[in-house]
Design a protein that fits this description.
Elements (H helix, E strand, L loop, with lengths): L6 H24 L11 H8 L4 H7 L4 H7 L2 H13 L8 E6 L7 E6 H6 L2 E2 L1 E6 L3 E7 L2 E6 H7 L1 E8 L4 E3 L2 E4 L1 E10 L4 E10 L8 E8 L7 E2 L16 E3 L4 E7 L6 E7 L4 E5 L7 H4 L1 E8 L2 E7 L3 E7 L8 E8 L5 E8 L3 E7 L3 E6 L5 E2 L2 E2 L1 H4 L18 E4 L12 E2 L3 E4 L8 H4 L9
Parallel strand pairs: 3-26
Antiparallel strand pairs: 1-2, 1-27, 2-4, 4-29, 5-6, 6-7, 7-8, 7-9, 8-28, 10-11, 11-12, 12-13, 14-15, 15-16, 16-17, 18-19, 19-20, 20-21, 22-23, 23-24, 24-25
Length: about 450
């Protein structure tokens, strides 16, 4: 006769069964699980990477070989460049300023971001060193065009390289016969090519003065100098020897004398058609009698012109390229401590970043409030000597060039690339060592 089952025994057995099932579930399903990682199609990865700043993408090349191949390709560089031009986020295409060091060893370059000038008490900078004494003659799409000045003078040759400071790549040095008196570097968007234009003095074996010719060089493996239509003015009369490239127009621009002594004109060279034309600067009352045109530049992708006056420095923007009637006055910057401002960059239409001439120091001018500020470039970080912003005895004359970071490589222009021509320099930190602060600057850097 079977004994009656105790309800407590049934409950205990049920719990044991459930526990066993739970244990089996853990062992069978949780421990051996090897779920595949989430998969992203190549198109999605490319789209994500295209939204990142160029400087970050340079670092991401080391993630894997497929990313390195993608980021280093010319198609990706072109797509990223187009995105950066139209990006609303300023950090996407970081504007930076490069300049040669004009003292001691001339083959050094400083480099700092525009953002750091506005957001920090001192700029963040880096320093590069080249094998030759290069000067910057222009920048376009992240590429800087450098000319070897010493070799030019001594050997009657032109030595040129293209350099992308963001990627660290340079082209192998290109050598040409002759001397570059007037030059310019720009991009022909129709043929997707980079061009160097110059008035070249041709070497003569006779006692007659050297002949000059307007020539153009399209960067590529098998390119060479070609003569084009001569400019309608002699090189020695051109005010700015380095042509100003205006993005979107495919033109290089110089200030040249017009019909009269006080009638300057703007000389425009079309890089696609390889022809030139002239148009008038701003038609300001008594401008030619009391103003001196200092420099052409680019602000907000517009051609800009600045002048010098005994009391102020007017700045105009050309809102419709080539149309003289479209000159619009941006600002009348007052003279301050006997300096005038040469514009470099316009931030959000209210703060102008420029060079305080003749001292070659960075200056900020607020267009709304009319106040000046002089950011200090920290020489212990970017390789520059610490010089008072308005020192009349400064030997640190510099020419600043604004460029936007990109992934464009000299190899995308059909040139052989190299990483050995320019190198980043590590500097000795001296700002916390009172014993070293008293030493001359030439002893502090290596």
């Amino acid at each position: 006769m079977s004994q009656p089952r105790d309800e407590d025994d049934d409950t205990e057995n049920d719990v044991i069964k459930r526990k066993g099932k739970a244990l089996r579930t853990t062992a069978e399903h949780l421990l051996p699980s090897a779920a595949p990682p989430p998969f992203l199609p190549d198109e999605i990865i490319t789209e994500i990477l295209l939204r990142l700043p160029a400087r970050l993408l340079v670092q991401l090349r080391s993630v894997c070989s497929s990313w390195k191949t993608l980021i280093s390709s010319s198609q990706f560089a072109s797509d990223h460049l187009r995105r950066s031009i139209t990006a609303a986020e300023p950090s996407f295409s970081e504007p930076r300023i490069a300049y040669p060091r004009w003292w001691h060893k001339h083959n050094k370059f400083g480099d700092f971001s525009v953002r750091s000038v506005f957001e920090k008490p001192s700029t963040e900078g880096v320093c590069f060193e080249g094998k030759r004494d290069y000067n910057i003659i222009g920048s376009c799409n992240g590429l800087l065009c450098l000319v070897d000045a010493d070799h030019n003078k001594i050997h009657n040759r032109v030595n040129v390289i293209l350099w992308n400071p963001c990627t660290g790549l340079t082209s192998q040095e290109l050598e040409f016969e002759g001397l570059l008196n007037v030059c310019g570097f720009g991009y022909d968007h129709v043929s997707d090519s980079y061009k160097l234009v110059g008035i070249v003095n041709e070497e003569e074996k006779t006692l007659k003065p050297h002949k000059s010719a307007t020539t153009i060089y399209t960067f590529g493996l098998n390119s060479s100098w070609r003569k084009i239509q001569d400019m309608a003015v002699k090189a020695r009369y051109i005010e700015n020897k380095e042509g100003v490239f205006v993005p979107g127009t495919g033109t290089l621009n110089w200030i040249v004398p017009g019909d009269g002594a006080f009638n300057p004109m703007v000389l425009s060279l079309d890089l696609e058609k390889e022809t030139h034309s002239l148009f008038s600067p701003p038609n300001h009352k008594d401008m030619y009698c009391h103003f001196k045109i200092l420099k052409l530049c680019v602000l907000k992708n517009y051609l800009a012109i600045c002048c010098e006056h005994r009391t102020h420095c007017p700045v105009w923007l050309m809102k419709e390229y080539g149309v003289s009637e479209s000159w619009t006055k941006l600002a009348m910057i007052p003279q301050y401590l006997n300096i005038h401002v040469i514009p470099l960059y316009l931030r959000e239409n209210d703060v102008l970043l420029g060079t305080a001439s003749p001292y070659s120091r960075i200056i900020r001018y607020n267009l709304n409030h009319g106040n000046f500020k002089f950011p200090v470039i920290d020489g212990h970080r970017d390789g520059m000597m610490k010089v008072a912003p308005l020192s009349k005895h400064s030997m640190a004359a510099k020419r600043f060039h604004v460029y936007h970071e990109s992934l464009v490589s000299p190899s995308h222009c059909g040139l052989l690339s190299s990483t050995s021509e320019m190198r980043w320099i590590k500097l000795i930190k001296v700002n916390k060592n009172p014993c070293l602060q008293s030493l001359p600057s030439e002893f502090l850097y290596w």
